Amino acid sequence: MGGPNIFETIQRTTRRTEPFHSQYLGDVLDASLAGDRSLFDAVWKLCAPVEWAPPARAKVSTEFPLDGAQRIDVLIKDSDNGLVLGIEVKTSRASARAGQLEGYLQGLRKENEAENIALAYLTPFNRAQAERFIGDDAATLSTVKVFDEFQCTFDRSRHVSWLDVAGVDWEAGGEVWSQHRAYVREKMANGDTLRGAMERNRSLREFFSAEAVDRFDDALLALSDGDHSDDGVTIELARLDGDAAELTRALAILIEDGEHVAQRAEKEDRFDDTLRERFLNSRCGEVHDALFSLAKYPHVWLQGSWNYGLRVAHKRSSGGVSLVTSQDVDRLKIGGRR
Fold first, then answer.
1. Residue 116: which residues within 8 A CB-CB, separation 6 or more?
2. Which pTM value belongs to this model?
3. Least enclosed by CB within 10 Å: which of 193, 202, 248, 303?
4. Beta strand 309-314 pairing with 300-303
């Protein structure tokens, strides 16, 4: 396959890639309906209840408006039988939100007979695909947890992995479809990347919600080209070029995790001012200053006798949880064993 992958180009251009993939899915489903139906029929069988046969005629809509100013990513209406299949698209684990599927279902029920509605959740990994790479840890993924909770209340729901969609060999899609399949496997739903993220952040999942850790890891991937292992992530601060905004935003995801963090606690720094100056006067001083400023949260503090750790108060740990540990003035360690 020659030339650049257009979907990798989109990823490098904007962080809001999800709308591109949901629109592309709607477009290729519509194109498949009008010609080689192999893709449409395969996706319908993945997403719809088993007893729903692929429709002879259908209408595909994207960003379909629902009651309450909501929009579902893809909506397919069986023109002859009045069946309605909604597909909510996620392209990263970090975008999973509790209660979102329930909202879409309520919106669909406003305009359709309840028995004629089905809803699919299309994410990088469902439980079955995730188990191939991380075994029982699949149950801790935020997308899996969100779907499992929803399925308990609505049985005409399916959790589909983008890997399942990419498994459809649709010749009519040409080079662009081939590029999208490659992008899904190499970038969006790469099993090795998922395994590495779970190993890096296994201990974080013991202290923070799955949703918060998934969002944190997604933000961290953009920053850490360094060492990734089960002993955490090492960030070379020089590569941040003095801009710690993305790093502090990523850490704030964990700091503000109200499910587990003891946000009402009040902590004081245990880090000597002389040692603090050592970091502030280094070539990476702006980054350290930004990290020190996170102690503005009452439940966050700095602690250390030479290097420092940024710690957050926790409901189940009297000593709090370490988020970041400095490794001299020019490196940070995030995650790893505790």
1. 81, 82, 83, 84
2. 0.76
3. 248
4. antiparallel
